[in-house]
Each structure stands twice: as C-alpha cells, then as structure tokens.
C-alpha cells in the first residue's frame, strides 16, 4: 500500500513503496504526468516553444542521476549531479528520512535564480535509484536482465537495466570477482552484477536504474581499469571502463 505525503509544493505527491521512493508532479487542469526518461545529463525535453491550446509553455527539462541529501527535518533542500553541479530546490522535498542520502534520477528545470551561491532548480519528477552494495553471493543463481546502457558518471558506475518481472521483489548488488595489477602498477577490477528475483516469473519488461559507488570498491584509485559483467538473456556480457 502506498504511503502518500504532500510536500510544501502542493503539486508534488510522494509515492513511497517498500522498494523505492518516487515523486511525480501533476499538471493540474491538463491531466498530464511528466514521465521519467534516462538522459545521463543530456537534454530530456526542449519544448519551451511548444504551447498548448491554452497558451501553456512547457519548461525545458533536464534529466540526470543525482545525490539528494536531507536535513534534520527530512527536507530535501539540494541535489548534486554526477557532473558535480549542486542545485538548490525552489521548494523543499518533504516526507523523506531525516539526515539521509538518496540516489535519484530526476527531471528538473532551472528557474534562473540563485540561492546561497547555488543555481535554483525545480524538480518535476524524481525516482529512487538502486544503490548497489557488495555481496559475496556466488553467480550461479543469478537471474538475467537486459541492459540498455552502462556508463561511468562521476564516482558511480551507472546502469539502465530492463529485467522481466511479474511485479515481484528483485534484489540487486555487485561482486568483486578478481583484482589484478598491470606491469605499470595500475589495478584492474573484475566486478559483476548480482541479481536475484525468486518467485518472480519473467513476464513483462520494466526499467531499473542502478548505481555502483566506485569509491566503495576497496582500494580502487583513479586510473584503474574496470570490467563489469552482467548475466543477460543472451549470456554473460562484459563492459570495460577506465576510472578516470
């Protein structure tokens, strides 16, 4: 059962489930919802010139993965993108845990204002991202998932995944399978995705966003190499990166 809370911005509704916290903004009078799409820092929608029949001008939205921190009252006052830019929120996000950290994907627009030396942004949509934690579970019982994209953003290895589900519970994490060193002394890390969905048959596709904090990987340094393996529906595939 969803736990709804209204923020100080009455148009933002929080939907909190056992697995995630998601927010969406109702466009009152139009019956529309702003939908989330991944854009890793790209321009998601640039439609400020598109007017509807009532003369409403739609904002130019950016969609990015970001870190959101709350204060002692559970208010989300600012977020920082993977590119390192911090934005103050035009209206605080409420109903969250106090002094907490949230990894989110959000669609936002800049207001043109400055607050405490930070540019001000208004969030239109936000959804929690799976923050992958280390596990020692073996890979034999992994469940497959499709992979839309994997990339490094800031201190994270980010991924957009498309598992098949019937709406059941899915578990995510990562393993450190092997660490070696090159002749120059640089390390290379073989990591793999942990994914289990017991009692959740493969049915329809859904989108899952996940981030692996590379700074949590023991002893990893800038310049080291990463090989990340995922069990897909067509077998295990590996993506390679340099942690620069």
Descriptive labels:
244 residues; mainly beta; 5-stranded mixed beta barrel; 4-stranded mixed beta sheet; 20 strands; 55% strand; globular
Spell out the blueprint of helices and strands:
Elements: E1 3-6, E2 12-16, E3 21-27, E4 32-33, E5 43-45, E6 61-70, E7 76-81, E8 86-93, E9 101-115, E10 118-128, E11 130-131, E12 146-153, E13 156-162, E14 164-165, E15 171-181, E16 187-196, E17 204-205, E18 208-213, E19 225-232, E20 235-242
Parallel strand pairs: 8-10, 11-18, 16-19
Antiparallel strand pairs: 1-2, 2-3, 3-4, 3-10, 5-6, 6-7, 6-9, 7-8, 9-10, 12-13, 13-18, 14-17, 15-16, 19-20
Describe this protein's structure:
This protein is an all-beta fold and 244 residues long. It is 0% helix and 55% strand. The protein has no helices and 20 strands. Strands 6-7-8-10-9 form a 5-stranded mixed β-barrel. A 4-stranded mixed beta sheet has the order 11-18-13-12, with no helix packed on it. Mean pLDDT is 82; it is low at 1-49.
Number of helices: 0
H/E topology pattern: EEEEEEEEEEEEEEEEEEEE
Backbone structural class: mainly beta
**Overall mean confidence score, pLDDT:** 82
Spatial shape:
globular
β-strand amount: over 45%
Radius of gyration: 19 Å
Across the major sheet, the strand order is 6-7-8-10-9
Kindly report how far apart the N and C termini lie.
Answer: 43 Å
Low-pLDDT parts are: 1-49
Assembly level: single chain
Q: Major sheet, described briefly?
A: 5 strands, mixed, barrel
Helical residue percent band: under 10%
**Total number of beta strands:** 20
